[in-house]
Amino acid sequence: xxxxxxxxxIAASIGVAVGLARVVGRExxxxxCRQIDDTAxxxxxxxxxxxxxxxxxxxxxxxxxxxxxxxxxxxxxxDVYLLMHGDALLIDATSDAIRNDKVNAEWALSRVTERxxxxxxxxxxxxxxxxxxxxxxxxxxLMRHLCGEQRSEPSTDGPAVLIAHDLTPADAVHMxxxxxxxxxxxVGAESSHTAILARTFGVPAVVGVGPLPADIEDDDxxxxxxxxxxxxxxxSPEERRAAETRRDxxxxxxxxxxxxxxxxxxxxxxxxxxxxxxxxxxxxALAHGAEGIGLYRTEFMCLSRREPPSExxxxxxxxxxxxAMAPRQVVFRTFDWRGDKRLRAHDLGExxxxxxxxxINAVLRASSEGSVALMFPMVATVEExxxxxxxxxxxxxxxxxxxxxxAQLPIGMMVEVPSAALLAERFxxxxxxFAVGTNDLAHYTLAFDRRDSRSSAKPLDPAVLGLLQRAITxxxxxxTPCSMCxxxxxxxxxxxxxxxxxxxxxxxxxxxxxxxxxxxxxxxxQVAAAVAGDAMxxxxxxxxxxxxxxxxxxxxxxxxxxxxxx
Length: 566
What we know:
Elements: E1 5-8, E2 10-13, E3 16-23, H1 41-70, H2 75-84, H3 88-101, H4 105-122, H5 126-146, E4 160-164, H6 169-175, E5 180-185, H7 193-201, E6 205-207, E7 221-225, E8 230-233, H8 237-257, E9 271-276, H9 282-287, E10 292-297, H10 311-325, E11 329-333, H11 350-366, E12 372-376, H12 382-397, H13 402-406, E13 411-415, H14 418-422, H15 424-427, E14 434-436, H16 438-446, H17 462-477, E15 482-484, H18 487-490, H19 494-501, E16 505-509, H20 513-521, H21 525-535, H22 541-551, H23 553-562
Parallel strand pairs: 3-4, 4-5, 5-6, 9-10, 9-16, 10-11, 11-12, 12-13, 13-14, 14-15
Antiparallel strand pairs: 1-8, 2-6, 3-7, 7-8
Helix pairs in contact: 1-2, 1-3, 1-5, 1-6, 3-4, 4-5, 10-11, 11-12, 19-21, 21-22, 22-23
C-alpha cells in the first residue's frame, strides 16, 4: 500500500505479530448455473462424488497433520468437517439437485449450502452463526476440488502474516505454521474453529475486520495487535520497530508467567481455571498452568449432527479430558440441543429428556476417572434446578458401574439470568457451586437485542454489578463455591472490579491465563473493594471503567498500557 492503513476487528488470539503480508484467496469464487441434459447427469454426479472424496482426503490429511503436531485430542475439530462430508442434508441433497434440477454440481452445491445456512444465519445465537460458517468452509473445500484449484500457500523466507477473506480450519492447520506469525481475516468470530486453532498454535489473530482494500499487496509490512484487535498494513519503520519490541516483551512475559502463582499484593490466593470448548485446548490449558477447567462447553459434540452423540462417544471424549487434567477438576456444562442453553428439565419432551440423560450418564461414568463436576446453564427458578438434580440422581441409580455410581459429582448451576442472582440465597440451599456467566447476565439484565451486532451489553453497568455482588455475597454466606467464567473475568480492567466484589475463583480463555495472573498479583484487595463500592454509585459502565482505571493506575497502569488495554 502507498500509505499506512489501519483496521479494527475482533481480537481472536492475543499477542503481537510483525511480518510481510501474504494475501490468500483474494478472488472469491462465483459459481455459474449451467443446465445439463439427461445424458450428462451421471457424469456430473460422478464429478461431484470425486470432489467429495478428494475434499475428504484433504481434511483427513489436515487431521493427521494436526494430530502429529499436537496429539489426538485435536481430532474433533477436523471430525466436524468429515462428518459433514457424509451428511445427507448436504451431500445427498446436492446429488438430488443435480439429478432433479439438471444443473451443474457447482450450482447445485451453492443452492443447497445457501438453503442450509439460511435458518442458522437468521438465529441471533453466535453458536448457530458459527455453524453456518462451518457449512461455508465445507462448501469452499468441495468447490475447490470441483474447479480443480489448489490451496493457496504462502511462500516467503521470513515471517508472514496471512490476510484472507476467511480461512477454513483445514487450511489453518497447514498454513498457521512457520513462517506464518499472524492472521487477519475479513470475517470470523472469537469462537470460530479457525480462531481456536490460532490460539492453539500461538498465532496472534484479528478476525472480522470487514472488507479490506484490494490494493493490499504481498510484502506490505503488517502489524497484528491481538490485544486491541487492530491491524496496520504498510507500517512505517518506526511502527515496526516498536511492535517488534512489544512482541519480544510479551514473549518474555508469557515464559515468566507460566511458572507464577495468582496471589494478590496482600497475600490472597486466587484460583485461575480455563474455559475450554474443544479437547484440543486441554493441552494448552495445562501448558499455561490452569488450575482446572472451570467451564467445559460440550456443544462441540453436537456440531453438524441431527442427533446428539451416543453415550459411548461422549464418554470417550470426557474421559480423555478428565484423565489429561487429573487431579485438577473439570466442570462440564450440559448442552441443550435447541441451542438456547435453557435447562427446562421440567418441560423436556421424552426425546429431549433421553438426550439429557445420555449426557448425564456419560459425565457420571467419566467422573470415576478424576475430579469432575456438572453444571446446568441458564437456570431461572429453584424448581428447575431441583428437578435437574433429581434427574442426575435418577441417572446415577440406573448405572450398573459401581465406581461411577459412588463417584463424587458436585452439581452446580450457572448464574446468568437476573432471577438466579436475585434468588441466589435460595439457590445456595440446593447447588453445590455457582459459576457466574457475565455475558448473558448483562444481556438479560439490560434487555439488549442479541441480533443487533452494533452494540453489546456491558457487565460493568452498575445494574449488573449489583447482581454480581448479590450472587457472590449469597455464595459466601452459604459457603458455596462461586466462580466467574464470563468475559468480565478475562478483561484486565474488569477483573480488578470482580476481585473487589469478592470473587476468588475465575475461569478464563486459555490464552488469557498468564495475563489474568499478572493482574491478580498487582491488585491490593482492600483497594479493589473500595473501588467496587464506589463503582456502585456510578451511572454507566463507561463511568465505572474510567473509575477503575483512574484508581488502580498506580498498581496496574504499566501492565494495562503494555498490553494496549488502556
